Amino acid sequence: MDRSVTPSPGPRSPGRPREFDLDDALDKAIGTFSENGYHATSLGKLTAAMEIAEGSLYKAFRDKRGVFLAAFERYVMLRSELLAQELANTRTGRDKVRATLAVYAEYSHGKTGRRGCLVVGCAVDLASSDPAMAKRVAAVLASQERRLVEFIREGQEDGSVSSRVDAAVTARLLLCVVQGMRVLGKTGRSREEMSSLVDSTLKLLD
C-alpha cells in the first residue's frame, strides 16, 4: 500500500507539502522522540529529523502531538511484529518468556539502548499531563502483562513452568523487569550485562 504523501499538481510554493514517505518519516520521528522526549523535541528539530517541510507536517499530522500519536502507534506495531517473529520458533511457555526477555535485552544496550523506549518515555514525559496518552500507555502495558500471564500459564500446562508460580503476580514482575531494562539501557549498558539478566529472571518460573 502506498504510504506516501503527494502534493497537489502545479508549482510548489513555500509552505506547501512535498512528497515524502510516511513510514520513513515516522521512523525518524520515533528516534527523535525516544532520544529527547516529547517536551524537549522542538518542531524544528522534528521536521529536520523527519526531513519534511513544516507545511507537510501540518498537512499530514496537524501538529507535533499528531506526529507523536502516529509515531507511538507505529512504534508499538513494529515492536509487536518483531516479538511475534521471535515467538514463532518457540515451543513452550517458558521459551516464550525467554524470547520476550531476550528481545528486550537486545534493545537495551548500546546505541539502541541509549535511544530509549517510546512507551517508557511517554509514561514518564506525558502520562501525568495527557489523559489520552496515559490511556494509550496503560493499554499497551496491560496488553504486555496479559501476554506474559498467558505464557506462564501455557508453561504450567506444558510443564516448563512450576505450578507453584502465581501467574498474575509473576507476569507483573516480569513486566517491571523488561520495562526496567529499557530504562537501564538509557545509561549505556553492554549486551553482556543485559543478556545476563535473562537467565536470572527465568528463575522466577522455577
UniProtKB/TrEMBL annotation:
Record-linked InterPro entries: DNA-bd_HTH_TetR-type_CS, Homeodomain-like_sf, HTH_TetR, Tet_transcr_reg_TetR-rel_C_sf, TetR_C
A UniProt-annotated Pfam family: TetR_N
Gene3D superfamilies: Homeodomain-like, Tetracycline Repressor, domain 2
UniProt key word Transcription regulation: yes
Keyword flag Transcription: yes
Stretches the record annotates as Disordered: 1-20
Single Gene Ontology MF annotation: DNA binding
Keywords on record: DNA-binding, Transcription, Transcription regulation
DNA-binding region, residues: 42-61
Domain HTH tetR-type residues, every copy: 19-79
PANTHER family (alphabetical): TRANSCRIPTIONAL REGULATORY PROTEIN
Protein name (database record): Transcriptional regulator, TetR family
